[in-house]
């Protein structure tokens, strides 16, 4: 018996939405096939880009958790075809775990609902980030834009985007060891109440903008004065890119996940050619190679 599923790349955090907002897009995807096995290993990982130890592999750790909880004693092989680049803030670890959970759910006819699949997918994030955070995997299961309304108990809401937009992913040639863990360590443990109120306003405005199709609200709401500010030393080129993109009428700009990828929202009113030229000049000044991918939101995919 076997089952095969895919999960797409994603951009979590989205401005003020640290650990609660995630957006699935078509830029990349992981393909995971799970099959029953006659071998000696309970879980055998077959992959050339991810750890082969199931406890250190996001897909493997997620499946271990399901097997323990559901008392499943079959031996299985997990084939991981890695398409989402690792360590670039594009939800790579979550893509593997969510695709694996979807495949395992089908293979053993578990009838897990979407939030249950998110619960097991997020468990795998411990292997990559040291903690089980649900943002990336939530959009991997639901597709589109997702909002984590509660982590304990886990509750997720799908947010409709009622505005026609495109995405530019600026992907620098930068790789940092344990980047996600380091980025999370920079997040302040305490904040001033004024900063909390201001960021809450950003978040509410951003969600309003997406649901109502209000361009100005999306632009204003994508700002963040807490997490993005704390991590600014990691991405020296970010604020220059943001300033130039906004001047050329991009809708909004944010760091994708824990970076270093930058996400730019554009539409028919944006001067894309100028934005691309400015990015070229900025990255040249910072002596940083990069590539740009134009993509769309991956809506409605969870099978």
Helices and strands, with pairings:
Elements: E1 2-13, E2 17-36, E3 43-46, H1 58-70, E4 76-81, H2 92-107, H3 114-123, H4 125-129, H5 135-142, E5 145-151, E6 154-159, E7 166-172, H6 179-185, H7 193-212, H8 215-221, H9 227-230, H10 238-247, E8 252-255, E9 262-266, H11 272-285, E10 290-295
Parallel strand pairs: 3-4
Antiparallel strand pairs: 1-2, 2-4, 2-5, 5-6, 7-9, 7-10, 8-9
Helix pairs in contact: 1-2, 1-3, 2-3, 2-5, 3-5, 7-8, 10-11
Give a description of the structure.
The protein starts with a strand and ends in an 8-residue tail after the last strand. α1 (58-70) crosses α3 (114-123) and α10 (238-247) packs antiparallel against α11 (272-285). It has helices at residues 58-70, 92-107, 114-123, 125-129, 135-142, 179-185, 193-212, 215-221, 227-230, 238-247, 272-285; strands at residues 2-13, 17-36, 43-46, 76-81, 145-151, 154-159, 166-172, 252-255, 262-266, 290-295. The chain is built from 11 helices and 10 strands. The strands form 2 sheets. Strands 1, 2, 3, 4, 5 and 6 form a 6-stranded mixed β-sheet that branches. Strands 8-9-7-10 form a 4-stranded antiparallel β-sheet. The mean pLDDT is 93. By secondary structure, the chain is α+β, with helices and mostly antiparallel strands. It folds into 2 domains: 2-159, Ribosomal Protein S5, domain 2 (2-Layer Sandwich), CATH 3.30.230; 166-295, Alpha-Beta Plaits (2-Layer Sandwich), CATH 3.30.70. Helix content is 38%, strand content 25%. The longest helix has 20 residues, at 193-212. β8 (252-255) and β9 form a beta hairpin.
């Amino acid at each position: 018996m076997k089952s095969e599923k895919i999960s797409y790349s994603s951009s979590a955090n989205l401005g003020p939405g640290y650990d609660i907002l995630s957006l699935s897009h078509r830029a990349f995807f992981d393909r995971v096939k799970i099959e029953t096995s006659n071998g000696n290993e309970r879980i055998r990982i077959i992959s050339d880009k991810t750890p082969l130890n199931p406890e250190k592999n996001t897909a493997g750790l997620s499946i271990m958790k399901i097997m323990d909880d559901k008392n499943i004693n079959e031996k299985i092989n997990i084939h991981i075809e890695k398409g989402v680049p690792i360590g670039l803030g594009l939800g790579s670890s979550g893509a593997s775990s969510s695709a694996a959970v979807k495949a395992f759910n089908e293979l053993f006819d578990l009838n897990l609902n979407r939030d249950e699949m998110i619960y097991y997918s997020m468990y795998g994030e411990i292997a990559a980030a040291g903690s089980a955070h649900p943002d990336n995997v939530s959009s991997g299961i639901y597709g589109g834009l997702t909002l984590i309304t509660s982590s304990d108990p886990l509750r997720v809401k799908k947010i409709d985007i009622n505005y026609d937009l495109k995405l530019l992913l600026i992907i620098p040639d930068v790789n940092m060891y344990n980047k996600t863990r380091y980025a999370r360590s920079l997040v302040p443990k305490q904040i001033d109440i004024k900063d909390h109120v201001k960021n809450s306003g950003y978040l509410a405005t951003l969600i309003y903008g997406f649901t109502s199709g209000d361009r100005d609200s999306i632009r204003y709401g994508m700002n963040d004065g807490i997490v993005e500010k704390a991590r600014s030393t990691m991405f020296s080129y970010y604020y220059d890119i943001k300033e130039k993109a906004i001047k050329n009428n991009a809708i909004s700009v944010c760091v994708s996940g824990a970076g270093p990828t930058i996400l730019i929202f554009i539409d028919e009113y944006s001067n894309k050619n100028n934005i691309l030229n400015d990015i070229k000049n900025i990255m040249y000044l910072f002596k940083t190679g990069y590539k740009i991918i134009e993509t769309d939101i991956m809506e409605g995919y969870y099978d």
